[in-house]
Design a protein that fits this description.
The complex is a heterodimer of chains A (310) and B (432). Chain A is mainly alpha-helical and 310 residues long. Chain A is 70% helix and 2% strand. Chain B has 17 helices and 13 strands. Classes of the chains: A mainly alpha (310), B alpha/beta (432). At the A-B interface, helix 13 of A face helix 3, helix 4 and helix 16 of B.
């Protein structure tokens, strides 16, 4: 018996491929909290909002609603205020996303070059990100009023000019809100690009340098292509942030003057809490959701194409 | 054995009977015990400025003293640790109130705006009708005020006080420049021109938060509709929002803006911040709208730098009507349907508007919403407001969509758009 060959069960088994790739119950247990939180606080509310967009509901009593199908969306098509807020939202989103990315990237390059004072600049530029948008809005409201910094600056060059009331002028109010947004979030983009710059392929940069590429050419042909995944993510974050902007607009202009800064989120708020029209407000919310998801899908497709192109 | 069984059965029956008796007794006594439990009423308001918290607190103290075991929940306020109900800024108030109502957890007693939201809450069945309570222990409110808080034949709110909206003017500057109080629009424009020669703006308005722009329109409707009924009729669909009375009022406002009577930048200023700064710093000679709800704030800011007083918005040129203010209910309170102790809430409202309540209002320069004698030592300003109240015209549109578009379009007029844009916006909103 002592020389008996070991029993087959004692022979060490080679793990089956199936076992090595599936996480099993332990793996599921690890992801479950995230799935539950995601489902409860994101998927379910979106489904609920989609459902409410098909109802005529004042929002007071749960059972006190009428099913109206797609009527809210039909109403939306003929609603000039919706289209105004839609256009303003897109304009705000495009302008802020483009400028935030260009300026944020420029700041990141400046800081990555480690010129004197770059550490201080990094902190100073990131500081506004830490402030509440409400504080930023109040601050910029003051800066853009008749006695604010903007008019004092104008007075330096045109002492006799009447004060420009940026937020009271329908042609300038949205620009005022955009400036406040850019001031607050440029540092955020800068930090993301700065993190991306830390992972640049040094060998390619050195090769470009040996081949005689100047700084501009290196940025264009090495840095930017290497940052495509970062650019895609930052753009997506900016676009989604722009589509759902509310606080800065609400505090700075309340959507005025005369709807000139009305965006989808402020219009949705008005419908829900002033007009007690939860159905229509939910329909507007669905437009924001669809636009955000579309932006995310575009980002994913763009990312895939970049990966395929190498 | 049979005896033993009978004995056990009897014991069980006795136990069951005893248990039943105890349960029954506890059910009978439960309401008595419940009535002795402490009751806490929650009350919300957005008026934590001026002297309103003092008036609220005065009523709370008297009510709590007379009703041991019943308290009003204390919230944050600006008048001391032991003072005040739960206050939220107006910007957030309706959002919070709506969310609390939807969650079936509204406060028992809530301040509510006098306009469209009030109607929405009534129609949604969220409020307790007060029709049966009003005849007992409440004063005889002014008839137009009772009408304003009545919907579908029931009374739904207790009006605390009324206000008038007039133009505040820098009396010292007017005297210096020998400007008489304007009685007509031509005189108002002449006064503005004279102020302008001294580098001073005319009427400072803050229309960024919109509502005060609506009041400029209502001040004109008070003259273009001499009957003071068109707003109510339009709300009911009996006349159109393009009625000549409204069109003329819109044109009057557009003319005022074109004539420079309104200080520039109204849309970039909040009412009672930017415009009050202009008035208090004497950069503007007048300010609109000013009522008893803000006179304390104006006095604080002016701080004795100059004398000021009030006059009703002057009538348009050619009008044969007497000059008149606009006005209506200032604060009004409702009892919510989800309140666990509506009777106690109604009882508290009685304390808010009884004789002592009236005295507290008058002592703090508010005008009670019922006939109340004015003490001889009250200021000229207070007497001015009480006098203006007698002729004050309505400033209410109940249709929230029409009202919202009126306010937005008024911002357009402040930026120089023609009066017709306002009428178009109101007609379109009315058709929705």
């Amino acid at each position: 018996m002592a020389f008996a060959p070991p029993r087959p069960s004692r022979i060490p088994k080679i793990a089956s491929p199936r076992r090595s790739v599936t996480p099993g119950w332990l793996g599921l247990a690890f992801v479950l909290p995230s799935v539950v939180v995601f489902g409860l606080f994101l998927v379910l509310p979106v489904i609920a909002v989609a459902g409410i967009s098909l109802l005529d509901w004042a929002g007071f009593r749960i059972g006190d609603w009428t099913f109206v199908g797609l009527d809210q969306f039909r109403q939306m098509v003929g609603d000039p205020v919706f289209w105004r807020s839609f256009t303003n939202t897109l304009l705000f989103t495009v302008v802020t996303a483009v400028v935030l990315n260009i300026v944020g990237f420029a700041y990141a390059l400046l800081i990555a070059s480690h010129v004197r004072g770059s550490t201080l600049a990094k902190s100073a530029l990131f500081l506004p990100v830490l402030l509440s948008p409400v504080i930023v809005a109040l601050m910029w409201t003051r800066q853009l009023d008749a006695f604010g910094a903007a008019n004092q600056l104008i007075a330096l060059f045109a002492p006799k000019a009447k004060p420009t009331l940026f937020l009271g002028d329908p042609d300038l109010a949205l620009a005022g809100v955009i400036v406040a947004t850019l001031w607050q979030f440029t540092g955020y983009n800068m930090l993301l690009y700065y993190a991306g710059l830390q992972n640049l392929p040094r060998d390619q940069l050195e090769a470009a340098s040996i081949d005689g590429a100047g700084k501009g050419a290196s940025i264009r042909h090495v840095v930017v292509p290497s940052l495509y995944p970062v650019i895609g993510t930052v753009l997506l974050l900016n676009v989604i942030g722009g589509l759902r902007v509310f606080d800065l607009v609400y505090v700075m202009t309340r959507g005025g003057p005369n709807r000139s800064t009305e965006v989808l989120a402020t219009y949705m708020y008005e419908q829900a809490f002033k007009f007690s029209d939860m159905g229509y407000a939910s329909a507007i919310a669905m437009v924001i959701v669809v636009l955000s998801i579309s932006a995310a899908v575009l980002r994913i497709r763009w990312g895939s194409r970049m990966t395929e192109d190498g | 054995m049979a005896n033993t069984m009978r004995s056990v059965s009897t014991r069980w029956r006795r136990t069951a009977l005893l248990t039943g008796a105890v349960l029954a007794a506890s059910m009978i006594t439960a309401p008595t015990v419940g009535a002795q439990d402490p009751v806490e009423l929650e009350m919300w308001s957005w008026n934590n400025e001026g002297a309103y918290p003092l008036v609220h607190e005065d009523a709370i103290k008297r009510f709590e003293a007379a009703n041991p075991g019943v308290t009003v929940k204390r919230g944050q306020s600006n008048c001391g640790d032991a003072c005040g109900v739960t206050y939220f800024g107006y910007t957030d108030y309706l959002t919070k109130f709506k969310a609390a109502t939807a969650a079936d957890e509204p406060p028992c007693i809530a301040q509510i705006p006098w306009a469209g939201e009030f109607r929405d809450y009534v129609n949604s069945g969220e409020l307790v009708p007060l029709t049966d309570a009003i005849p007992t222990g409440f004063p005889a409110f002014f008839d137009p005020i009772v009408s304003a808080v009545s919907i579908n034949g029931d009374v739904w709110a207790v009006p605390l006080d009324v206000n008038t909206l007039q133009i505040a003017y820098n009396k010292t500057k007017f005297d210096e420049l020998e400007i008489a109080v304007p009685q007509t629009y031509a005189e108002l424009k002449a006064a503005t021109d004279k102020l302008g020669e001294q580098g001073t703006f005319g009427i400072a308005m803050g229309t960024k938060d919109k509502w005060s722009a609506g009041d400029l329109f209502f001040a004109q409707v008070a003259y273009t509709d001499g009957t003071n009924t068109k707003l109510t009729q339009a709300d009911a669909g009996e006349v159109g929002w393009d009625d000549p009375a409204f069109a003329q009022a819109a044109n009057n406002v557009a003319q005022m803006v074109a004539d420079g009577v309104i200080a520039p930048g109204a849309n970039s200023m909040d009412a009672f911040q930017g415009n009050l700064d202009l008035f208090a710093s004497q950069a503007a000679g007048m300010m609109y709208p000013v009522g008893n709800f803000v006179t304390a704030g104006v006095a604080d800011k002016v701080d004795g730098a100059f004398e000021w007083s009030l006059f009703p918005f002057p009538k348009p040129d050619g009008s044969t009507l007497d000059n008149r203010a606009t006005g209506g209910i200032a604060e009004m309170f409702v009892v919510t349907k989800d309140c666990k102790d509506p009777e106690q809430a109604i009882e508290f409202l009685r304390y808010l508007v009884n004789d002592e309540g009236g005295a507290a209002l008058v002592a703090n320069d508010f005008i009670p919403s019922w006939e109340y004698p004015v003490p001889s030592d009250k200021s000229d300003l207070y007497n001015n407001m009480v006098t203006a109240q007698a002729t004050a015209n309505s400033r209410v549109i109940y249709s929230t969509k029409v009202y919202a578009e009126l306010l937005n379009a008024m911002q357009g007029l402040m930026d120089g758009e023609p009066g017709s844009t306002l009428i178009d916006a109101m007609v379109a909103a009315g058709a929705q």
